[in-house]
Amino acid sequence: MSNFLLIETATEVCSVALAIDGRIVDCKESKEGQNHAKMAAVFADELLSANKIRPSQLNAVAVSKGPGSYTGLRIGVSLAKGLCFASQVPLIAVGTLEAMASHVALHQEQYGLDAGREKWYCPLMDARRMEVYYTLVDQEGQPVKEVSSEIIHEQSFQQELNGRQIVFFGNGAAKCRNIITHPHAVFVDGVSASAQFMLKLTQDAYNKKQFEDVAYFEPFYLKNFVATVSAKNVLKL
């Protein structure tokens, strides 16, 4: 019997899920944004209490490691570390984009995709203006492109698209739809980061005992955090 608590706070979605024996049994989510600090710990406590599971009964806590919002990632990782440290359970880190790709690959029919056609999966995370964070994953779930950032233009992904269909999705996909117009480009709506999508990669990592060092683990920001200063406060620096 395996119990996993899954935490996703890398984007505007604050999501916590509970998985028991390879199945998501409960999940709480908020898509309001800016509430992660208030909601994540509450969601975790409510899920464990409702399902009568103590933190010490968890086999692992999994957290979405990024890329994504600097603040959101810090909140999720801090919560996961606190639970692991207090209850002496392993910490598993799951790539945010990889979890989304895994979900779409496992639910092709749900998104109107032809399961018999060769394709790659490309989750796109909005990184402001025309920039996105992305990765490419093949139909066996293997990465073919490491997580990177890209400023989207008319030639983006053209070489990859010449060889196969690529499925684009995520909160950065909408702004790319009218620019990436290759006939092999397919856009899927309604896919947002969620703790529910983390289960397969969490189970794989658990089976391989791929655990993080609770004391030293840090999120994968991809970019350095840059603090902005209000114009009216510039002269006070």
Question: Which helices and strands, and how do they pair?
Answer:
Blueprint: E1 3-8, E2 14-20, E3 23-30, H1 36-50, E4 60-64, H2 70-87, E5 91-94, H3 96-106, E6 119-126, E7 131-137, E8 143-151, H4 158-161, E9 165-169, E10 185-187, H5 199-207
Parallel strand pairs: 1-4, 4-5, 6-9, 9-10
Antiparallel strand pairs: 1-2, 2-3, 6-7, 7-8
Helix pairs in contact: 1-2
Structure write-up:
By secondary structure, this protein is of the alpha/beta class. It folds into two domains: 3-96 and 193-236, Nucleotidyltransferase, domain 5 (2-Layer Sandwich), CATH 3.30.420.40; 97-187, Nucleotidyltransferase, domain 5. Helix content is 24%, strand content 26%. It has five helices and ten strands. It has helices at 36-50, 70-87, 96-106, 158-161, 199-207, and strands at residues 3-8, 14-20, 23-30, 60-64, 91-94, 119-126, 131-137, 143-151, 165-169, 185-187. The chain has a five-stranded mixed β-sheet, with helices on both faces. Strands 8-7-6-9-10 form a five-stranded mixed β-sheet, covered by helices on one side. Strand 7 (131-137) and strand 8 (143-151) form a beta hairpin. Helix 1 (36-50) runs parallel beside helix 2. The chain is globular.
